[in-house]
Q: What sequence folds into this?
């Protein structure tokens, strides 16, 4: 049985990757941050009782700011594969927290690479490493972007990821480690964090549909993105670590749409007129924007045999149907609450 260690297991991609690896028979270990409330919502359905002798999923407390613990966990788990998905992953937030973002997304990658190098050297057992790189690294470079396009980062997040990318390459060249960079374009899902554009739109549009909200405040509607589904993208991560040689790959659908088009499609799916509800709010703009991203994933197609199965319409269908269900639950609770209040008032 193969063992994998995932940083960021509680995130969108971490949850899909865990499902994929468990399905392939792996034992999966994840690093979670201690929080004052439960932060494992996305993986709760995979949780197994610690007393179950057959269990194949394990969680360990740790943080990408804490190199000592990363090393301890790595030594304890001795995985064949490490997936470094942990990050402060919100581009706009990175302008407000540049130092923290650099520490976790940049130096955090170095910390875990160092732990991998050290444990591999001292045990002689190979540990393959995946780094969660991003299309944001291309920044101002015009589309289409491929592995040979220059990096022109436009945010503290992107600059930190560029550092992590080159450290991953350096550890491959300097120490002969099996390290891969996935340069993944935007990928979304029903589990996407609610402050990212796609989920913010599907949550708001479905709440508007059910009368729970009236307005949606957005920033730059002209930005263009290449949006895929996370379920497809975690498969590419796994494929990279199964190759004979380590390498770096762009992962994308090759289709580009504007934020405006995305909004139109979501509201259109719900028979709503988006222009009646969407308000452009200057607060949502970034100091520097990445205008257009469209990936050329020819290398991943040819060498990994990877291609996406879920297109934008299917992505929207899944996200909207999921969020309609959430809005319906909220509507029921709200109606019930009002009914109880009315009954309470009537009995006074
Ligand atoms: P996400 O949903 O924001 O998940 C991020 C994960 O990192 C969460 O598990 C989070 O833990 C964890 N994390 C945050 N700070 C940490 C720290 N200091 N130490 C350890 N773990 C920490 O992100 P995602 O969409 O799944 O993306 C996964 C990775 O791919 C990230 O590195 C992201 O930058 C990169 N990426 C994402 C996309 C995309 O479109 N989704 C595209 C390219 C690259 P909590 O749950 O406790 O917050
Ligand atoms: O923004 C515009 C915004 O925050 C998409 C992360 O996963 O993908 C993600 O980064 C676009 C941008 O994603 C709002 O200005 C307009 O042009 O969903 P987003 P992102 O910045 O592309 C990359 C590949 C990553 O690596 C990152 O980790 O939409 N936009 N109005 C808005 N964006 C947000 N969040 N909120 C708005 O109100």
A:
């Amino acid at each position: 049985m193969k063992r994998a260690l995932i940083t960021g297991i509680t995130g969108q991609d971490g949850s899909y990757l865990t499902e994929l690896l468990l399905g392939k028979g792996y034992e999966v270990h994840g690093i979670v941050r201690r929080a004052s409330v439960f932060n494992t919502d996305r993986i709760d359905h995979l949780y197994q009782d610690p007393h179950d002798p057959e269990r194949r999923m394990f969680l360990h407390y740790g943080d990408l700011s804490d190199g000592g613990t990363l090393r301890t966990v790595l030594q304890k788990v001795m995985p064949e594969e490490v997936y470094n998905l942990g990050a402060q992953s919100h581009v706009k937030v990175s302008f407000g927290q540049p130092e923290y973002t650099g520490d976790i997304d940049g130096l955090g990658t170095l910390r875990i690479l160092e732990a991998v190098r050290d444990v591999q050297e001292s045990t002689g057992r190979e540990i393959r490493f995946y780094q969660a790189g991003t299309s944001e690294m291309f920044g101002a470079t015009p589309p289409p972007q491929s592995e040979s396009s220059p990096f022109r980062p436009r945010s503290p997040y992107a600059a930190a990821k560029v550092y992590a990318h080159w450290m991953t390459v350096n550890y491959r060249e300097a120490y002969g480690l099996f390290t891969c960079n996935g340069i993944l374009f935007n990928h979304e899902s029903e589990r996407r964090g609610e402050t990212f554009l796609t989920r913010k739109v599907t949550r708001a549009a479905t709440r508007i549909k059910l009368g729970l909200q009236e307005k949606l405040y957005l920033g730059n509607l002209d930005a263009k993105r290449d949006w895929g589904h996370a379920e497809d993208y975690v498969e590419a991560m796994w494929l990279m670590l199964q190759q004979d040689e380590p390498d770096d790959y762009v992962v994308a659908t090759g289709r580009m749409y504007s934020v405006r088009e995305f909004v139109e499609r979501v509201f259109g799916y719900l028979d709503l007129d988006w222009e009646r509800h969407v308000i452009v709010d200057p607060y949502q703009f970034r100091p520097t924007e990445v205008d257009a991203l469209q990936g050329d994933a020819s290398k991943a197609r040819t060498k990994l045999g990877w291609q996406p199965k879920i297109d934008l319409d299917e992505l929207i269908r899944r996200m909207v149907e999921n969020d309609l269900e959430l809005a319906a639950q909220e509507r029921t609770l709200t109606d019930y609450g009002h009914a109880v209040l009315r009954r309470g008032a009537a009995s006074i």
In short: The chain has a mean pLDDT of 97. The CA atoms of residues 64 and 108 lie 5 Å apart. The first helix runs from residue 12 to 23. The pocket of NAP (ligand 1) is lined by residues 7-8, 10-14, 33, 39, 63-65, 85-89, 104, 132, 134, 184, 186-187, 193 (CB under 6 Å).
